[in-house]
Amino acid sequence: MQDITWADFEKVELRVGTIVEALPFPEAKRPAYKLKVDFGAFGIKKTSAQITKHYKLEELPGKQIVGVVNFPKKQIGNFMSEFLVTGFADENGDIVLTSVASHVPNGSKMI
């Protein structure tokens, strides 16, 4: 593990957003969904997420998640990802989304 400074951490824009749409992503190399997330003043951004083991498409809209919104866009197959959704791997390596315990305004920054 490498130490970082507080200034390094402040550069990372970890923001809360609400999933407004979740779609299948059959073209992905590994099972994934396409997500559209409302980050309030930062707009609606899209990404893909390999979260198919723990989540069904129909349960995702309305869920608040945490994303990094200041990474450059990344091409994933035929899809352009606009932010990094955050999560943790379970004991099998399957991703569990990072979320908030109570509702907060979209676009709120982790402090």
Major beta sheet summary: 5 strands, antiparallel
Number of separate domains: 1
The top-level CATH class is: Mainly Beta
SS strand fraction? 35-45%
The CATH topology turns out to be OB fold (Dihydrolipoamide Acetyltransferase, E2P)
Structural class: mainly beta
Q: Which residues form runs of ≥5 with pLDDT under 50?
A: none
As laid out across the biggest beta sheet, the strand order is 3-2-1-4-7
Helicity, in percent? under 10%
| SSE topology string | HEEEEEEEEE
Spatial shape? globular
Q: Write out the CATH superfamily name.
A: Nucleic acid-binding proteins
Whole-number average pLDDT? Answer: 96
Distance between the termini: 21 Å
Radius of gyration: 14 Å
Keywords: RNA-binding, tRNA-binding
Organism: Pedobacter yonginense
Domain TRNA-binding: 8-111
InterPro entries: CsaA, NA-bd_OB-fold, tRNA-bd_dom, Tyrosine-tRNA_ligase_regulator
